Amino acid sequence: MVLVLILLVGSGVYNLRQRRLAMNKARESQVTLTRVEPAADESGEPDAEGAALRGKAAPAFTLVDVGGKKVSLAQFKGHPVVINFWATWCGPCQLEMPWFEEMAGKYKPQGLVVLGLSQDEGTDKDKIAAAAKRLGVSYAILLPDESVAKAYGGVDYLPETFYVDAKGRVVEQTAGAPTRDMIEADVQKTIAAGQ
Questions:
Q1: Residue 62 and residue 136: Cα distance in Å, rounded?
Q2: Which of 143, 119, 115 is nearest to 129 (CA)?
Q3: How far apart are alpha carbons 79 and 165 in whole angstroms?
Q4: Dihedral over Cα of 61, 180, 158, 190: its sign
Q5: Residuewise pLDDT in 10s, the chain (195 residues)
Q6: How far apart are CA 151 and CA 63, in angstroms?
Q7: CB of 164 closer than 8 Å to CB of 81
Q8: Sign of the CA dihedral 83, 90, 51, 99?
Q9: Against a cut of 0.85, is the pTM above it?
Q10: Contact 159, 96 (CB under 8 A)
């Protein structure tokens, strides 16, 4: 009888530990959206310009990267491009950036280009570069420009990503950090759309 009681208590403790481990693991993989202040026009109303860009031409831009080099979306004409709006303080951004790095390498033969557009207004470029390096990112990290975010719909949540096909059209637009498989599916869809 005592042995049965010890086995029941022991299995209950083991079960409790396993459920707690599973719950902690589920919390770690949970993704949340980070709200940023929406851009406003002169009247103070949020700007909806570019909010639904799917199927339309991606707004053009020229920005400076963390190394001081000018980078233009136009220079990648004929290439599928991933435009990822991120920030150094954004947890979900840090989760997905290594996946974008992986996709940049895996789909380089198909011409894929990944551009990271920092939304860290007022942050030193060296801090932005250090954050990207810490995450293992080697793709172009571009410095903030509010007008670009506005052209892409205000970028109300981070991360926000636009998938642009080789013809310059927005194929997909996502907010929040999707899974690695979802990112890869959007990359493949973008590559196929431009052929």
A1: 24
A2: 143
A3: 7
A4: positive
A5: 777 668 666 666 676 677 676 666 655 554 444 454 444 444 444 434 344 799 999 999 999 999 999 999 999 999 999 999 999 999 999 999 999 999 999 999 999 999 999 999 889 999 999 999 999 999 999 999 999 999 999 888 899 999 999 999 999 999 988 999 999 999 999 999 988
A6: 13
A7: yes
A8: positive
A9: no
A10: yes
3 state DSSP class of 111: coil
What the block records as the tokens of 17 is: 């530990």
What count of other Cβ atoms lies within 10 Å of the Cβ of residue 180?
A: 15
* DSSP letters spanning 20-78: HHHHHHHHHT----EE-PPPB-TTSPBP-TTS--BTSBPPP-EEEBTTS-EEEGGGGTT
Rg (alpha carbons) of the chain, rounded to whole number: 21
